[in-house]
Design goal:
Length: 290
Amino acid sequence: MERAVIIVNPESRNSRKFKEKRSEVLEKLSQKYDVYIWETVKAGDGTRLAERAMEFGASVIISAGGDGTLNEVANACAGKDVKVGILPLGITNVFALSQKIPRNVEKAAEVILNGKIKEVDLGKVVGGRYFHMMLGAGIDGFTIKEMPHEFKKALGAPAHVVIALVKYPDYMPVPIYVEIDGQDFGIGYQVVLANIPNYGGRMKMAPMALPDDGLLDVVIFREAGFINDISHWMGFLLGIHHKMGSIDIHRGRNIKLSGKGVYYHIDSEFGGELPIEVTCVPRALKVIVP
C-alpha cells in the first residue's frame, strides 16, 4: 500500500471543512493509501514537511490548504518522483479551480483516490522559488506587499481589491522592461507571467494558457494611469482585456523583467523586487486531477 501524507494548513480559510469531514476523507483515502496527517505551524512548513514526507517514504503528498500551501508543497516536490493531491481549503483555490478539482473535500478525496496523473509545468525565478500559477509585477506586486496577512485571512478574496483601492493613491507606475527568449518586447507597467488561465478565481488573465505546454504566457499592460487602469480592470472583469489594444499576450520559456523599485508576487505571496529572470520548467510536478 502506498504511503500518503496530508499536509494541512490549520489556518486556511476553510480548514474547518476538513475537520468536519476528516473521518470520511480518511476512510476514502485509506482504501488505497496508508495515510498520515501533518499540520503546518508557520510559513515555509509546507515545503519542510513535504521534504520530510518524501524522506518518510510517501509517494503521495496531499496539500490541504490554499494556493499558498500548494506553492510550498510544489517547491519541495518539483522534479521529484512523487504525486501531489489537492484538498482545496483556501480562499479561492485558483489552481484547483483551473484543474476542475472539486471544492467539496470528500469529492476532492475521490479525485486523489481515482484520478489521473497530470505532469504540469512550473515557473521558476532563477535563484529563487517555483510558482504553479503566476507571477505578477507592478501594481499586483505592490498590493500584495502592502497587504497584512491577517487582513487577507479575515476578508478573503476581496482583500486584494480593498487594499488596491486604499493604497492606489500611493502607487507610482514604473516602466517594466520585458525580454522573452532573448527578444526585446519593450516596456509595460504591469506584467503577468501565467502558467494557467485563471487569476484570482474564475476570471482568466491569460485565456489560452496551458499548464503543460512548456511555456509561460506573458501578459503585458502597455499603458498606466488612472483611466487606463480602470479600463483594464473593467476589461478583465468582462473577459475582454486581451482584445484591448493596450494589452499584449506572448509566450516564452525564459523571461527577464527589470524596473527600478518594481515589486512582484509569486502565487499571490510577496516575492521581492525586480530585476528577475524566470524560466518555465516543463512537466516539473505530478498532480492528481479528475
